[in-house]
């Protein structure tokens, strides 16, 4: 059994009966989130890239749970400087967390940490997505990305049960490109993420799911805090 909980924006938690991991925790900065960082119980924190709307709550959650933080090596190094237990990895690599295996896949985006007081942006490695095997299921989290042709290759090589795809536009692909990505990934279920958090990325997620259905694909909208079980 696998429990999937959507915490809003791009934050997704995947849990078996005994263990769980959370991806891109962003709760304090999201007015739509219904969960607080202190409510999260998890064994690992996976980060797709270094933008604040993906890493804001990684430190408090990891420290409170003594959880490992998985990220591309540059971002993992930065997190280790904060006293966190990190696992640095890179594109194409797989990390074994015992209860889950996470393979890092490419995403087309940017990744840096804005140091406001210094008026400086710190390079934090490449952005990424993950293919995660957990609870007998294969879950794809695309991270923040535009559409790119190798999504088809990824879909051809993996039997994906659930794909989390950004649809917000402006900073990532919008619904039209996400529909093409969904076709190429060919997951049994597609769930939209990275939308509505800010005015500039507001989208009609229900319409997106209807458009998926018109292409013969199953989609589902999850509200922040909502779960489903596979």
From TrEMBL:
<comment type="similarity">
    <text>Belongs to the UPF0173 family.</text>
</comment>
<dbReference type="InterPro" id="IPR001279">
    <property type="entry name" value="Metallo-B-lactamas"/>
</dbReference>
<dbReference type="InterPro" id="IPR022877">
    <property type="entry name" value="UPF0173"/>
</dbReference>
<dbReference type="Pfam" id="PF12706">
    <property type="entry name" value="Lactamase_B_2"/>
</dbReference>
<feature type="domain" description="Metallo-beta-lactamase">
    <location>
        <begin position="8"/>
        <end position="194"/>
    </location>
</feature>
<comment type="function">
    <text>Counteracts the endogenous Pycsar antiviral defense system. Phosphodiesterase that enables metal-dependent hydrolysis of host cyclic nucleotide Pycsar defense signals such as cCMP and cUMP.</text>
</comment>
<protein>
    <recommendedName>
        <fullName>UPF0173 metal-dependent hydrolase HP552_15135</fullName>
    </recommendedName>
</protein>
<keyword id="KW-0378">Hydrolase</keyword>
<dbReference type="GO" id="GO:0016787">
    <property type="term" value="F:hydrolase activity"/>
</dbReference>
<dbReference type="InterPro" id="IPR036866">
    <property type="entry name" value="RibonucZ/Hydroxyglut_hydro"/>
</dbReference>
<dbReference type="InterPro" id="IPR050114">
    <property type="entry name" value="UPF0173_UPF0282_UlaG_hydrolase"/>
</dbReference>
